[in-house]
């Protein structure tokens, strides 16, 4: 689709986005008024209002009631997988998300349940499809904003009767409990993709229409190569920067 | 936004997406005709057509001229950073993207240039902002579909007069050449985020309006901790699954 074929509000959204990217409007700046933008781009105020709705949905600008529309400060959560999942952390009773810099998401809505494993969970865990797994689902909030949904799955036989089956897994969380059972995670693989959310995910993350998520699926392995957890995380893509370090 | 507030075509897009997710329509299946879908969801054919446009933009379905709309086979490129960047690969003259499973993106439109470094490039490279950097920009195609844009930046003083300044960097690519200069990459950090593309990026990747990209920024460090490359990659999010492995 060429620029010329775009609806007017999309074209204006692109113009304002480019001006932000070029530094004409800096983080925290108030944008010119709707009428000033309409005059600048020679469009109606209605087109500008729709363009700003696009940029709000993208998380690029934010409306403050009564004071205008501002370029959002990009305060993404730095999520460093190697650092946050090191044994030095959960092995000493710390919470994994305490490694996330500056902002520490808090956990709410913990639901523990047993159910038959779907194929994408059963296969890495080495179970036959439909075997019982224990799932722990929860949401992560920063201040009052939901930023992540996560569901961890464990073979039911492995964790039934342990504190992993309780709402509060105790110091160091599920990985510390697995270690106590002789199943300490030693290696992890995370699969990352971007996609549009399902309606349930969009609801849980309070996402506006047209926004998207990062889906991370983590497999945790013991030193012996046994997969003991599959964890699927759905992240508000505007809220996170992921970082991964590795050697040549 | 609740389901009730959504425009009709968004609601129908959600319904069809859910049916695909639930397996009612499997990968490769032809969807029912527009009129059949309109009847099923009690909406006009116009609403169904717009809903299918949404799903096409998401990469979930694909129209085949004259034969209908099909659920796309998800043949994402598996991009395994630790495996593809191992010295065992580039140190023996192989191309990094040969590690990508099944599909091997080919490189086109290589442009080499010298220019002043923007701050986000200068800072990790330990240069003052505006210092000269050599940039190598290129696009990656799978068959004829663009899937990635990438620009690598090197301190100009480090690579001027080497094969890194030529279009063809030779066997093993830029990392092999850096190693020959005594600057072999030993450690990498990749920063991953999802965002909407700039108009230039959308053009280069031939993305439809409303789709999004994964942005990966890689810093390559020598064993001595010197950053010798900053590489920013813009990926069509529907074309890739990234994977990262690390230890506890």
From TrEMBL, chains A, B:
Biological process, per Gene Ontology: negative regulation of DNA-templated transcription
Leader sequence residues: none
Top-level taxon in the UniProt lineage: Bacteria
Alphabetical list of CDD domains matching this protein: WHTH_GntR (cd07377)
InterPro entries: Bact_HTH_transcr_reg, Chorismate_lyase_/UTRA_dom_sf, Tscrpt_reg_HTH_GntR, UTRA, WH-like_DNA-bd_sf, WH_DNA-bd_sf
Keywords from the named record: DNA-binding, Transcription, Transcription regulation
UniProt domain HTH gntR-type: residue ranges: 6-74
SMART domains: HTH_GNTR, UTRA
Single annotated GO MF: DNA-binding transcription factor activity
Name of protein: GntR family transcriptional regulator
């Amino acid at each position: 689709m060429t620029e010329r074929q775009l609806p007017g509000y999309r074209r204006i959204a692109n113009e304002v986005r480019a001006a932000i990217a070029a530094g004409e409007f800096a983080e925290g700046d108030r944008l010119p008024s709707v009428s000033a933008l309409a005059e600048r781009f020679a469009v109606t105020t209605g087109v500008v209002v729709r363009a700003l709705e696009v940029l709000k949905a993208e998380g690029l600008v934010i409306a403050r009631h009564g004071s205008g529309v501002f370029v959002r400060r990009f305060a993404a959560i730095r999520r460093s997988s190697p650092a946050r999942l090191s044994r030095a952390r959960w092995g000493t009773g710390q919470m994994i998300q305490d490694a996330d810099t500056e902002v520490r998401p808090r956990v709410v809505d913990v639901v523990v349940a047993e159910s038959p494993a779907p194929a994408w969970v059963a296969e890495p865990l080495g179970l036959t499809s439909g075997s019982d797994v224990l799932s722990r689902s929860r949401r992560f909030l920063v201040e009052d904003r939901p930023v992540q949904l996560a569901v961890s799955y464990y073979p039911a036989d492995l964790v039934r009767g342990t504190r992993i089956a309780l709402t509060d897994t105790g110091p160091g969380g599920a990985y510390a409990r697995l270690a106590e059972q002789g199943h300490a995670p030693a290696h992890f693989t995370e699969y990352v993709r971007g996609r549009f959310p399902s309606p349930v995910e969009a609801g849980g993350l309070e996402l506006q229409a047209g926004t998207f998520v990062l889906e991370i699926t983590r497999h945790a392995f013991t030193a012996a190569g046994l997969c003991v957890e599959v964890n699927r995380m759905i992240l508000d893509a505007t809220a996170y920067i992921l970082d991964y370090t590795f050697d040549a």
